[in-house]
Amino acid sequence: MSVQEYLDKHLLSRRIEDAVNAAVRTKISDPVLFISNHMRKAVPSVITKVKARQILDSRGIPTVEVDLHTNKGMFRASSPSGVSSGMYEAIDLRDGEKGTYLGNGVNRAVNNINEKISVALVGMDPTLQSQIDQVMIDLDKTENKSELGANAILAVSIAACKAGAAEKEVPLHKHIADLSGQTSLLLPVPVFTLISGGKHAGNNLAIQEIMILPVGSKTFEEALQMGSETYHHLKAVITETYGAHGCNVGEDGGFTPNISSLRDGLDLVQKAIAKTGYNEKIKIAVGVSATEFCIGTKYDLDFKTPNKSGQNFKSGQDMIDMYKELCSDYPIVSIEDPFDKEDWEHVKYFSGLGLCQVVGDDLLMSNPKRIERAIQENACNALLLKVNQIGTVTEAIEVVKMAKDAQWGVVISQRSGETEDSFISDLSVGLASSQIKAGAPCRGERLAKYNQLLRIEEELGDQAVYISEKWRN
């Protein structure tokens, strides 16, 4: 399109005249600035450039970062990644060159953005999120986004979402709410990681994490205070019992005392909560990630202890009995992935007991087909959403709608490989999710999410609603 054709298409001569007349009427002191701002609003914004690069995530492993440009400015986003990936989730594209970043480089994904996705998206309206995402899905042509890479597609999708909010001149969480049809904005209950185990830590604890939910707080700000204070009291408790070396942290900031017993970890957390004085206001959650230690139909809770591994297998029924005892002895309100991702029989039975919230992570992998099956079979009652497992903002919105229609809880989750991008905070508020799991109240890439929620709560002012004790309603 020539310059003259562009001017004619957008009626710029008339718009400039209107801007000048408006400046004269308002008797503005700086008419040039006024006219410039007037024209920026008068001409619809489009994507003008998409540029990607390779950066490092919180584990020091490469990931994708994108700068998406429109007439309104530049909007940056990056893609997180996890320790494990499953056959049912969207696939990060890695270079596979062992001599560079141990094969974990993402230059192929970066090139796909710069050479293919950019060409397809330039000229598109950034407010049309679903169309942008569909263009990339069609360009990829695979079910798991393995051609272009989910890490490439997601980073662009998030950057476009930020650009769309700027074009509409609304906060990002409000734009997401508009995209999803959500009429209310809610501040979620933070699910803080306090003790890490499993693949996230080098101790002997088989289960992945012990977490707390400050459900008795009245605001998100108060919830963050409760989480931080409990975290620091726990540090003192662990130091007293195991020494300072027990306060090393895992990939998501949780402490990693050298314990092998889940009860030992729960006792430590209980002592820390007691020291805060919050008591009933703080509940406990357990992230089991049982797939990691399932061998056939048995569960090896000693799989990280070489001299014990294989000697103390538990059946699915044994695990159910253990969970029942734990829920009776501790204020546990949520258990994540209590069984292997293919152990539908036991997870259905356990969910039916109604002892606590049962969260599907590896069970679901944010995959619509898995979620649909779990809804039909009553296999769990909460979705753990990891946006990189599904690959686009639009698809994330759709699976959250599925979960909410089923009266499930929704937990917006971090990954072990995070960046300083705080997008999931706005996503959680915009989708009115009940919980957000962003790791410990420690480490910059985790605090970026919690601090953004503080800003959102402040910005909403009197309209800010913290979900508090209604987190399961």
UniProtKB/TrEMBL annotation:
Gene3D superfamilies named in the record: Enolase-like C-terminal domain, Enolase-like, N-terminal domain
InterPro entries (UniProt xref): Enolase (IPR000941), Enolase-like_C_sf (IPR036849), Enolase-like_N (IPR029017), Enolase_C (IPR020810), Enolase_CS (IPR020809), Enolase_N (IPR020811)
GO MF annotations in UniProt: magnesium ion binding; phosphopyruvate hydratase activity
Cofactors required: Mg(2+)
Pathway annotation from the record: Carbohydrate degradation; glycolysis; pyruvate from D-glyceraldehyde 3-phosphate: step 4/5
E.C. no: 4.2.1.11
GO biological process: glycolytic process
GO cellular component terms attached to this protein's record: phosphopyruvate hydratase complex
Active-site residues from the entry: D252 (proton donor), K386 (proton acceptor)
UniProtKB keywords: Glycolysis, Lyase, Magnesium, Metal-binding
Binding site for Mg(2+): D302, E336, D361
Matches recorded under Pfam families: Enolase_C, Enolase_N
Family: Belongs to the enolase family.
The protein's name in its UniProt record: phosphopyruvate hydratase
Natural source organism: Anisodus tanguticus
Source organism phylogeny: Eukaryota, Viridiplantae, Streptophyta, Embryophyta, Tracheophyta
